[in-house]
Amino acid sequence: MTGLQLNLGPLKEPLGFIKVLEWIFSIFAFATCGGYSGHTSIKVSCSDTKNETLEAAFGYPFRLNTVMFKDLESKKCNGTWTPTHLMGDFSSSAQFFVTFAVFVFLYCMAALVLYVGYLHLYRGTGKLPMIDFVITMVVTLLWLISTSAWAKALTDIKIVTGPGIISEIQFCLTQKNSCQFGAVSSVGSLNVSVVIGFLNLILWAGNAWFVYKETHLHSPPDAPAPGGAPAPAGM
């Protein structure tokens, strides 16, 4: 039979249980990164203004070079304030991480449907477990690459939105003006996304063994019984 045969048994086995964890952790990965928004601020002072707070709001996908600080009123500081952007474009690393996590989420759903509803087909042929194993190895590698790239980008985001930003603003380098760093939003959820990325790496690397056990590489086809009749020789 090739139709649907619902069986929740695989969810109690490592093969299915770990897949459920991978599905859940993939949600956390793209939600903690893709749902972030925050701001950074500075306080500027000059001859006619003191501690004026200017903010810049930023968030996913972290194209910070398109984010501007709020403009200072033109009458203040003799018009020396000019439109000022944050620095850096970290969208490639952030979008790679989030997009990959979404694809993993979808793949886990498909795999769980296969395990729960079509396990007889999965274990009845050598192709599906082998495909599953290859995909598992590729996903493991991509978790390593995407999370490492995102962790590096997050480190740079913390730098360019932190106190060091003062040295990059031309207005603050003028002798008559002074600037102080105000505050920056917590990036706790982004730190969590990196941790979850590496947890996903560990989960997928560990699950590779259980998927491998389903393939013919671990359990080769049974050999012919001893004493069987030899195959007839060709004419």
What number is the mean pLDDT?
Answer: 87
β-sheet strand percentage: 5-15%
Largest sheet: 3 strands, antiparallel
Strand-and-helix sequence, N→C? HEEHHHEH
Helix segment count?
A: 5
- Count of DSSP strands: 3
How many whole angstroms does the radius of gyration measure?
28 Å
Determine the structural class based on helices, strands and strand pairing: mainly alpha
Helicity level: 40-55%
Kindly report how far apart the N and C termini lie. 39 Å
Enumerate the spans where pLDDT stays under 50 for 5 or more consecutive residues.
none
What oligomeric state is this? single chain
Please tell me what the overall shape is: rod-shaped
Reading side by side through the largest sheet, how are the strands ordered? 2-1-3
Structure characterization notes:
By secondary structure, the chain is mainly alpha-helical. The protein contains five helices and three strands, in the order αββαααβα. Strands 2-1-3 form a three-stranded antiparallel sheet, with no helix packed on it. Helix 1 packs antiparallel against helix 5 and helix 2 runs antiparallel to helix 4. The radius of gyration is 28 Å and the shape is rod-shaped.
